[in-house]
């Protein structure tokens, strides 16, 4: 499907489904960034700022939501950043696929420090990263790798994924467990933090395309399934699974995030929308973008706020996650 066909099908879905109107009790705000900058992922910082990766231009950016202003810093020649998260040191850490490195950017002086992967993993296709409770940084590479970095010493270990290509989203639970999703492998996996070994856990839907994962407050792993259009949850405590299909005929679930109230947020490329799922009522709310081709590739947040990158429109979107009367 080419871009024109995709936009046409998305528009048809929106017209045919009146439930995709903006949900009034929740307030949405958009922050335009430079056209063509190539937004990909973001993460809110404790000081109120929002850091974002601009894969198209090889930049890391910092948005000030108070006035919509932003500044950027180049990550180096050939940079193509993907994921970003805030470390225990308060700095943004980036999976920098263009230079096959993990990048740290000083939040004040914007100095860039690179931790390069060993040469034998020359094209790991780095995706996303997360810090465990001991301050170790874990990351995924879609070419079939995952790894860890000790920020204080710079020591890095890279492991081959048990089922090859596909490692994509990654998350840490409240107890400190680290899990990742494999898009091409259609599974999730738990990493043993001591040995580095990964144990595969198969979702109930075959070939579902597990893309991103996020833990809720109980340590359950929520999964966005790109191929099936489902959101599923795995409870490691008893090994159980539950799964729900997103609204509509052909949903494509890309990103997933669990907020501070344990409500689950996802992005649906087919619907051109962000979707909220309440596990208690099993009800979906759908927040359609006001522009076509939003393509929100990642979600993150803080209490009361959901943040996402509209990669198709090079805008950052914020939704207040607490309803206002």
TrEMBL record:
Pfam families: Vgb_lyase (PF24684)
Cofactor(s) in the UniProt record: Mg(2+)
First-level EC class: lyase
Keywords: Antibiotic resistance, Lyase, Magnesium, Metal-binding, Signal
Domain of life: Bacteria
One Gene Ontology molecular-function label: lyase activity
The EC number(s) this enzyme carries: 4.2.99.-
Gene3D superfamilies in the cross-refs: YVTN repeat-like/Quinoprotein amine dehydrogenase
Membrane-crossing residue ranges in chain numbering: none
Keyword Lyase belongs to the record: yes
Extent of the signal sequence: 1-21
Quaternary structure note: Monomer.
Family per record: Belongs to the Vgb family.
Protein purpose: Inactivates the type B streptogramin antibiotics by linearizing the lactone ring at the ester linkage, generating a free phenylglycine carboxylate and converting the threonyl moiety into 2-amino-butenoic acid.
Record-given protein name: Virginiamycin B lyase
């Amino acid at each position: 499907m080419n871009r024109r066909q995709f936009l046409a099908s998305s528009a048809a879905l929106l017209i045919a489904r009146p439930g995709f109107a903006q949900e009034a009790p929740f307030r949405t705000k958009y922050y335009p960034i430079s056209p063509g900058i190539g937004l990909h992922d973001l993460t809110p910082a404790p000081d109120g700022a929002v850091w974002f990766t601009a894969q198209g231009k090889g930049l890391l950016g910092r948005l000030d939501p108070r006035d919509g202003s932003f500044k950027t810093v180049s990550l180096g020649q050939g940079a193509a950043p993907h994921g970003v998260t805030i470390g225990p040191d308060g700095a943004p850490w980036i999976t920098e696929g263009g230079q096959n490195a993990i990048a740290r950017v000083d939040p004040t002086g914007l100095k860039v420090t690179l931790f390069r992967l060993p040469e034998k993993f020359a094209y790991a296709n780095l995706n996303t990263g997360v810090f465990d409770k001991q301050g170790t940084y874990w990351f995924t590479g879609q070419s079939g790798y995952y790894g860890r970095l000790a920020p204080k010493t710079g020591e890095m270990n890279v492991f081959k994924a048990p089922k090859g290509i596909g490692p994509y989203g990654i998350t840490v639970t409240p107890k400190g467990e680290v899990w990742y999703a494999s898009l091409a492998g259609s599974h999730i996996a738990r990493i043993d933090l001591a040995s580095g070994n990964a144990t595969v856990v198969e979702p109930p839907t075959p070939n579902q395309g597990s893309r991103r994962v996020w833990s809720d407050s109980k340590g359950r792993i929520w999964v966005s399934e790109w191929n099936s259009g489902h959101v599923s949850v795995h409870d490691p405590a008893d090994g159980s699974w539950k799964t729900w299909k997103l609204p509509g005929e052909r949903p494509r679930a890309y990103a997933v995030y669990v907020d501070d109230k344990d409500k689950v947020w996802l992005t649906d490329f087919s619907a051109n929308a962000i979707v909220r799922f309440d596990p208690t009522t099993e009800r979906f709310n759908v927040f359609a973008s006001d522009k076509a081709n939003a393509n929100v590739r990642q979600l993150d947040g803080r209490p009361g706020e959901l943040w996402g990158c509209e990669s198709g429109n090079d805008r950052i979107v914020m939704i207040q996650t607490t309803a206002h009367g």
